[in-house]
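Key result, reporting period 2: structure in, sequence out.
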């Protein structure tokens, strides 16, 4: 057993790095036995290995800043995959949480409670839909959207029994339940978990002609088209202008539900309340999650009009915790913060500023940085595989971490940069400078240190549709 721990300990030692950090404002309560190294060792030993985290332990956080148990300070450029749009531990959300927690936390939907109806009215009015179905995680929200589409397909569109099809996009990410991975093109997500849920077709994201062909060929059986308005996990892929509008038209023409997964893109992240607003379109079904709970509690919600939503009857779908009063109070506060603090406008202006800064870095390293892209504060830097070799985006993120910037790669060459929307100009500059410094100083050293034997991971074709999305 001991020998299997050694490589991890070596990795942790290397990864903990040497940067000198600002101290935590108040004394950390971390004891010597809960050092970063020990905590990471414990997690590795006792938790399933279903993630490959950047080796940094969150111990305390406020706004855009995070401290590890040793008191080192970092700036968050992931926001828990856009769940912390409002900033960590926002005081107004925490107040709502504490006040509600002292009064009532759970009724289950076996009864009514005095908070969920208030959230339901707020959400439906804010987003302009008749009704909401509350869940907890994003994947549950997606599952709800899929079930709703099938039910509507049989009841309203009169698709013959068990023949309904849902179309999703190559490169999509909709979560990790069996239903959600059944939409996926990610071999890691799908291999070893078959058989996947049937009744599914794939189409290239952004290709309206391909979608039209599928709708023409199978339209009578298709109940829904599930998509992300900007593909997050795929590497912040923004579709061509006019795509969302064209999708809206095709869905209307073929009587197919347009189902927008706004779990990552929604709640102000892209500089609009919903990313679909970039093309002024109204999907039939909108799925929200992540920042609806302000990074405090898992809260997801599916919005639709009555002719769709009422296809689901009592007992046919639900969740013990969905619509619980604690989550409802948090979600109300989370939405109020977005509105009161002008986070939509802030994401738009700061995002533009950030992309300008990153493009300046790209001009300094045109061989390494292939593209800077994004909307609002959902951005990505895509690097050139050959120029990085034998390093990867993960190695670049390790070095960013040593310089106090927390970001996570997606695929081998892409770094997603999505800070809390309360990020300051100075902090954006710090991140751009850190990236520039890593590419100038750290990357050449890493390229010498990483063994030559490391072979560049060839991008595999998707098992399901045969496409290679990243090379
Ligand atoms: C677009 C999208 N849909 C669904 C999910 C799944 O959400 P959760 O992890 O809360 O289940 C995610 C998570 O990253 C996501 O980005």
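The corresponding designed sequence is given below.
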């Amino acid at each position: 057993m001991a020998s299997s721990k050694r490589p991890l300990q070596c990795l942790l030692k290397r990864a903990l790095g040497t940067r000198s950090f600002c101290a935590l404002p108040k004394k950390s309560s971390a004891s010597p036995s809960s050092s970063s190294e020990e905590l990471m060792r414990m997690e590795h030993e006792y938790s399933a290995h279903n993630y490959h985290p950047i080796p940094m332990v969150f111990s305390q956080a406020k706004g855009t800043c995070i401290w590890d148990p040793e008191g080192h300070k970092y700036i968050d450029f992931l926001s828990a995959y856009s769940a912390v749009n409002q900033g960590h531990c926002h005081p107004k959300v925490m107040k709502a949480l504490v006040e509600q927690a002292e009064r009532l936390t759970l009724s289950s939907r076996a009864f009514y409670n005095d908070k969920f109806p208030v959230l339901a009215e707020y959400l439906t009015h804010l987003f302009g839909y008749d009704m909401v179905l509350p869940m907890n995680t994003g994947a549950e929200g997606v599952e709800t959207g899929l079930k709703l589409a099938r039910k509507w397909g049989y009841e309203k569109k009169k698709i013959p029994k068990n023949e309904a099809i849902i179309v999703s996009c190559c490169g999509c990410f909709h979560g990790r339940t069996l239903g959600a991975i059944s939409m996926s093109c990610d071999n890691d997500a799908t291999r070893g978990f078959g058989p996947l849920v049937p009744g599914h077709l794939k189409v290239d994201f952004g290709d309206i002609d391909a979608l039209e062909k599928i709708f023409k060929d199978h339209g009578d059986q298709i109940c829904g088209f599930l998509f992300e308005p900007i593909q997050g996990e795929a590497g912040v892929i923004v579709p061509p202008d006019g795509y969302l509008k064209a999708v809206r038209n095709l869905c209307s023409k073929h009587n197919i539900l347009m189902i927008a997964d706004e779990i990552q893109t929604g709640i102000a992240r892209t500089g609009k309340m919903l990313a679909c607003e970039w093309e002024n379109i109204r999907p039939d079904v909108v799925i929200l999650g992540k920042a609806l709970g302000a990074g405090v509690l898992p809260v997801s919600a599916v919005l639709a009009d009555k002719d769709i939503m009422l296809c689901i009857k009592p007992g046919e779908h639900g969740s013990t915790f969905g619509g619980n009063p604690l989550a409802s109070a948090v979600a109300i506060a989370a939405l109020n913060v977005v509105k009161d603090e002008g986070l939509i406008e802030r994401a738009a202006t700061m995002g533009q500023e950030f992309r300008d800064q990153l493009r300046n870095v790209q001009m300094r390293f045109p061989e390494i940085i292939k593209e800077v892209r994004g909307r609002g504060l959902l951005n990505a830097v895509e690097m050139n595989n050959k120029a990085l070799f034998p390093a990867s985006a993960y190695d670049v993120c390790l070095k960013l971490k040593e310089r106090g910037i927390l970001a996570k790669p997606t695929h081998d060459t892409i770094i997603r940069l999505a800070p809390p929307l309360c990020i300051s100009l100075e902090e954006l500059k710090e991140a751009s400078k850190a990236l520039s410094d890593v590419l100038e100083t750290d990357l050449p050293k890493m390229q010498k240190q990483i063994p030559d034997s490391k072979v560049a991971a060839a991008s595999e074709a998707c098992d399901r549709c045969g496409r290679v999305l990243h090379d």
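The domain at 2-44+51-86+343-449 is CATH 3.90.1150.10 (Aspartate Aminotransferase, domain 1). The longest strand covers residues 369-375. This case is discussed further under Risks and Mitigation.
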